[in-house]
Amino acid sequence: MNDLNIAIVSADMSRLDGIGRALASAARRLQVTEMKCTPQRLGALASQLAADILIVDCAEGGDNAAALTSLEQVGMQHPRMAIIILSQCESADFLIQAMRCGVREVLPSNADGAAFDAAIERIAAKTGRSGDQAGRSGKVLAFASCKGGSGATFLATNLGHALAEQGAKVALFDLNLQFGDAALYLSDGKAATSIADVVQGIYRLDEAFLKANMMQVSPDFDLLAAPEDPALGLEIKPEHIDALLALATRHYDYVILDVGRNLDGLTIRALDHADTIFAVVQASLPFVHGAKRMLGIFQSLEYPTRKIELVVNRFQKDGALTIKDLEAACGVSIRLTVPLHEEAAEAAANQGVAVTALAGGSPIAKSLAGWAGALLGKAPAEENHWFNRFSRFNRILKRA
Ligand SMILES: Nc1ncnc2c1ncn2[C@@H]1O[C@H](COP(=O)(O)OP(=O)(O)O)[C@@H](O)[C@H]1O
Ligand SMILES: [Mg+2]
Questions:
Q1: 161 CB less than 6 Å from ligand 1?
Q2: Which of the chain's termini has less CB crowding within 10 Å, N or C?
Q3: Does the C-beta of 152 come closer than 6 Å to ligand 1?
Q4: Closest ligand 1 atom, CA of 145?
């Protein structure tokens, strides 16, 4: 387990020394830095802070309201940093306000080594930094739509369901913050809470809080919906995406992101974290145009080519454009196709049920199940078109 980085802030040098000494007796290894500053000025210096835990000494008689406003600024910039304040003020109002501003613990000004130790362990347990936590490291799969209607949301939701059916623990984040509709593909009702609720309470982000705001699609599949009111999406910042993904990848095997067509600061931050980006197209010219533009953006973002997979959805073997044509036009090799199947896709979307659950025998469900199986390292399904391409290829290789 890595050392925890602790930053101590106080306006008084002797208090900084005293707190540093108290921390020296902590049970775990800590990297401690000290900063001479009043809590009221800390907001202005927020960008210079880098720590897992920030301990702020709020001196008696200081302006508590200004200190909390300043800490709120710090919390916004560093949502993953836990804040402990030292204060003699015990009024309920002050405590509640402090928690609202993102403070996790309020300790008395004369807190000793044991009090710090206990507070640090509580924080470590809550944020998943405790030594006994296995620390899952889930894969992040992002779905981008090269042109509206490509099927990115349909594939993201249904692949998520197929992965969960095959034993993986899956989370899906709908990052179409303006018009997200992923929940509609998997349920017949609206999601009660969304990513906006999680971000409003980002200072108390932990597994339980995240899960409480997600829709449970099936026992191993949770969905974090987009906000109903697009205005709420504006509150969500790239730092929040960092914090959400850091937490989710510790608790899920796969975190699926639906970023839709919208490439902005926030979705690009999400894509930065992705292990694989599935760019969804269809085999027709307007989609190819969209794909080329999107691949160009990924290139300018310097994403390695192995990170991008072009997925041809609604694929028909006798269509006007072949896979070879698409590969030549887009300049990448294509390994993934999902067949067109209006009946199964429409019935699933209309009922808000995953296609593998509703029409498991349909070509589209088999294709998705094969895709999920391949990601999980299981034998590919024979019926699946793209895996057949591979298995034939493999057979040829074996004979060579
Ligand atoms: N392979 C497929 N066969 C038939 N219909 C599909 C297929 N994939 C997606 N659809 C349908 O296409 C429509 C648009 O899909 P959607 O995922 O919302 O697109 P996007 O998110 O890329 O804008 C949906 O009604 C969906 O049910
Ligand atoms: Mg969509």
A1: no
A2: C
A3: yes
A4: 22
